[in-house]
Amino acid sequence: MRIKTVLIALALTVSAGAASAEKLCGWIENPTPGNWWLTDRDGSWILAAQGGAEAEGMDLIGDISAGDYVATNGNYGYGCACVDAEVDVSESRIVSISSFKQLPLKTCKRDKALKTPAE
Fold first, then answer.
1. CA–CA separation, 108 vs 115, rounded Å?
2. What is the dihedral of CA 84, 88, 93, 97, to 10 degrees?
3. Alpha-carbon distance 31 to 33, whole Å?
4. Tens-digit pLDDT profile for the chain (119 aa)?
5. Cα separation of 113 and 72, whole Å?
6. In angstroms, what CA-CA distances link 34 with 19, 43, 47, 99?
7. 3 membership: H or E segment, kind and range
8. pLDDT value of residue 20
9. Rounded to whole angstroms, how far apart are CA atoms 37 and 65?
10. Looking at beta carbons, which pairs linking 67-76 to residues 24 or more positions away fall under 8 Å?
11. What end-to-end distance do the CA atoms of the chain give, in Å?
C-alpha cells in the first residue's frame, strides 16, 4: 500500500509541472528588447525575458508593429492577439507557440476583463 501512495504522489508532482495546451487571447506586449508577454483574462504569461528563457515558436509572432499596434517605447509596444501554446501554469510561462494571430486592438478593448496596457 505504501508503494502505491508514493507512486500516486510522484504522479501528482510530475503532472503539476507539466505543460498543457491552451488558446490564450489578450494583449501581446513587447515593451523592451527581448521581453514579451501576453496578458489575458487570467493573468500574464511570459513568452520571453531578456537574457532568459524564450518560448519555442517565437518566430511565428513576427513584426507586430505591421498590424494594429500601439507604440509605447520607440519601436516597442503592444497589440492584441491569440496564441495556441503549451503553457507551464506553475511558472505562468508559455513554453512553446504553435500558432499566432494578431487581432484588431478593438477586440481586446471590448473585453472588459482585460486591462489596457500602460502607454
1. 9
2. -30
3. 7
4. 444 433 344 344 344 455 678 999 999 999 999 999 999 999 999 999 999 999 999 999 999 999 999 999 998 999 999 999 999 999 999 999 999 999 999 999 999 999 999 87
5. 22
6. 22, 20, 10, 20
7. helix 2-16
8. 77
9. 15
10. 67/102, 68/102, 68/103, 68/104, 68/105, 69/105, 70/105, 70/117, 70/119, 72/31, 72/117, 72/118, 72/119, 73/31, 73/32, 76/30, 76/31, 76/32, 76/33
11. 58
pLDDT of res. 17: 52
Which triple of cell numbers denotes residue 80? 492584441
State the cell numbers at 92.
Answer: 505562468
Q: What are the backbone dihedrals phi and psi of residue 76, each rounded to the nearest 5 degrees, phi first?
A: -110, 155
Cell of 100: 499566432
Query: Distance between CA 18 and CA 116 in Å, rounded?
Result: 30
Task: Specify the pLDDT at position 19.
Answer: 67
Cell of 86: 503549451
Residue 119's pLDDT is: 73
